[in-house]
Write a structure and sequence with these properties.
Elements (H helix, E strand, L loop, with lengths): L19 H12 L9 H8 L3 H13 L3 E4 L4 E4 L1 H31 L2 E8 L2 E8 L14 E2 L5 H7 L4 H11 L12 H14 L2 E4 L6 E9 L5 E10 L8 H18 L6
Amino acid sequence: MKNKVSQNQSSPTQEPSGAVKSVYRAIKILETFNADEGMTVTEISKRLCFPKSSVHQILNTLTSENILKKNPVTNRYFLGVKLFILGDKARANLEVRKVAEPLLKALKEKFDETVHLTVLDNDEVLYVECFESSKLLRPFQIIGYRAPLHCTAVGKAMMAFMNEQDIDRVIRTKGLKRFTKNTLTDEKRLMKDLITVVARGYSVDNVEHEQGVRCIGAPIRNHEGQVFAAVSVTWPSQRLQLSRIPKFAKTVIATANEISQRLGYRMT
């Protein structure tokens, strides 16, 4: 008769094969931790029925990335600071979506054009919400899509408020890839455009990322005044004349500012 598994020990589960197995095991290991409780390699191995060698290797990797930390005296592992940073990002993303939703809907109704909410994530644009135009010719929903900073309205709205060192890092690591003939691939021209964004409070994607698409974007700030997100309205280029952009931008800016205020930012 097989021994029963104790309450503190998990039964073996069907694991994925190949390289995915390590990712799966890393997730399961992280899930075993409580906020203040540390665990040893042996304890984790017994609880999850994973080989000690595999657990040890994964713990070393997670520790090197500050996802876990190790007490060298007790050899116990604890949740690391990076998890709390990631958790704060996740909470911020959820909060901004909840706060922004009614304002984004109102912005969409104002123009009946597609509205996007994005956040800054790993020096890229991450689209987290979308309200589509009812018109036949419109962009598709792109929630979860990532895009560069230098050629999107939302990207430039966030990039413009970075410090010079961070802008240099983005350009150095991500590059200035050309997507259309209008893409700003020259660093000096891009910096000039970003200075203009700060001065007027909004950004423009003038057919710089996709053919036939123009966007107006504006930055969103958190309660500390940091730009971490952006909102945009997207038009087919034939529906948005360049001369009308300054007028329409006032509404986009007002929406971004209202979202910022509802997140705790105090306008000066």
